[in-house]
Specification:
This protein is α/β, with parallel strands linked by helices. The chain is built from eleven helices and ten strands.
Length: about 375
């Protein structure tokens, strides 16, 4: 018998959710009705089909999102997709699916939205009179190189616009698919316009497959670092998230492997559990690691002032208290010992070219 925390939503049959991260599909919090499976008494199992990925079209009118958060090093971002097929159970973006009337659980990783006009919308926004360039962050909410990018190639088109217009961009991904665009990224890197961060949460293939089932395997991400670095593209590693008692023991090993692969800057984020993410992570722990669930949650609360999550700026990323301080100190010591840079050179903004003169509206005077 285990004393692990109890899950809060009915589990979806393992065969139906095979290859997915979340183990349930709770109703969106804004929906007026909640549906639950229930036994009809006949003793016959429902033969429901496996959960398939469905891609819907997002008719966005703009693609650049602005933010003024004081603890985030960028003021604008772009996400060509909503939802993410990688299925990382801990993804802090999961609650955003509730605004679409969909579940932050399995819906988030199987009912996706693509923005096919992203290239055109981006070019239009960058061409507006008075636009002031600053680094555009891509991959901050959902992964731009998730599996459906192979079909839609939205990121390829976005990079073509940014390269042509001389606009700086930073990219975060868990996918080796980023290697497809090395030609464009190398051109931009020569002009100081791009940096790429690969997120590596673990070197343990089994843990990675359970925690982030459709992201590239850890060794593939390291190989992507090698190829990007060899092409002259600045590479960073994000150890994110650090999950207490799950992958915190790997911090130094990940940093060493990433440095050997060419990464020269590194960062980390302590596990965040906003809104529905808390229950989804608890369910995942109960299902896959019941013997560790209570310990993991206890350490999380130690680092969050006794709560499951503390959303205060400047503390939400790293936590507080002895455990959080220990993680921060270990990270700092490892960076210094291995030889990471404190910060890579800033990306250039002086090369930006807006709309060509013939595309701008003529003055009345």
């Amino acid at each position: 018998m285990t004393d692990a925390p109890q899950s809060t939503a009915p589990m979806v049959d393992p065969q139906r959710r095979r290859g997915r991260g979340a183990v349930s599909n709770p109703a969106a919090r804004f929906e007026p009705t909640h549906l639950e499976d229930m036994d009809d008494g006949w003793g016959e199992p429902d033969e429901l089909p496996p959960i398939r990925t469905e891609v819907l079209i997002d008719k966005a009118r703009s693609v650049i999102t602005r933010n003024a958060s004081p603890d985030i090093p960028f003021d604008r971002s772009l996400n060509p997709y909503r939802g993410c097929e990688h299925g990382c159970v801990y993804c802090f973006a999961r609650p955003t699916h509730a605004y679409l009337g969909l579940s932050p659980g399995l819906d988030f990783e199987s009912r996706l939205f693509a923005k096919p006009d992203a290239r055109q919308l981006l070019e239009k926004e960058l061409s507006k009179p008075g636009y002031v360039p600053r680094t555009l962050a891509i991959g901050t909410n959902t992964d731009p190189y998730q599996p459906i990018e192979r079909q839609y190639q939205l990121m390829r088109g976005i990079l073509e616009v940014l390269c042509r217009m001389g606009h700086p961009v930073s990219i975060v991904t868990k996918s080796a698919l980023v290697m497809r665009d090395i030609d464009l990224l190398a051109q931009m890197a020569e002009r100081g316009l791009v940096c790429v961060a690969l997120s590596v949460t673990t070197l343990d293939a089994k843990l990675a497959r359970t925690m982030e089932p459709r992201a590239s395997a850890p060794y593939k991400r390291l190989e992507a670092m090698r190829q990007l670095s060899a092409a002259g593209i600045p590479v960073s590693v994000m150890v994110a998230p650090i999950i207490p008692a799950m992958n915190d023991s790997e911090i130094e090993a990940i940093l060493e492997a990433a440095y050997e692969a060419g990464a020269r800057e590194a960062g980390y984020v302590l596990l965040r559990l906003p809104l529905e993410v808390r229950d989804l992570v608890v369910e995942w722990l109960v299902t896959h690691y019941p013997d560790k669930a209570r310990h993991v949650l206890s350490l999380i609360r130690d680092a969050r002032g006794g709560k499951d999550y503390d959303a205060r700026w400047n503390e939400r990323m790293t936590g507080t208290g002895p455990y959080a301080a220990m993680i921060g100190r270990r990270f700092e010591v490892a960076l210094r010992r291995i030889g990471y840079l404190k910060r890579q050179p800033r990306l250039r903004t002086d090369l930006f070219r807006g709309a060509p003169p013939q595309a701008q509206q003529l003055s009345l005077f």
